[in-house]
Design brief:
Layout (H helix, E strand, L loop, with lengths): L8 H11 L3 H12 L4 H13 L5 H17 L1
Helix pairs in contact: 1-2, 2-3, 2-4, 3-4
Length: 74
């Protein structure tokens, strides 16, 4: 990931999460949040995942776990 960081990777990841989030793409989003920058935008994207009804509950729960983790880190 580090090799692609800030070279268009973020946009591709966001599109993937908007289209069909997975545990892996949420993990990568959490890593982006840890890296700093655009935190509010990425957190809002995670929040949208938790509100979707067209994806598995497990995916929504993982997104919420990352939100909770990031809020503890503040």
């Amino acid at each position: 990931m580090e090799r692609f960081y800030r070279h268009g990777y973020e946009e591709l990841l966001m599109k993937s999460i908007e289209r069909r989030p997975t545990i892996h793409t949420l993990f990568m989003m959490n890593r982006l949040i840890n890296g700093g920058g655009d935190r509010e935008f990425y957190m809002a994207l995670l929040k949208k995942v938790t509100e979707r009804t067209d994806i598995e509950k497990e995916i929504r729960d993982v997104a919420q776990e990352y939100i909770d983790f990031q809020n503890e880190e503040e």
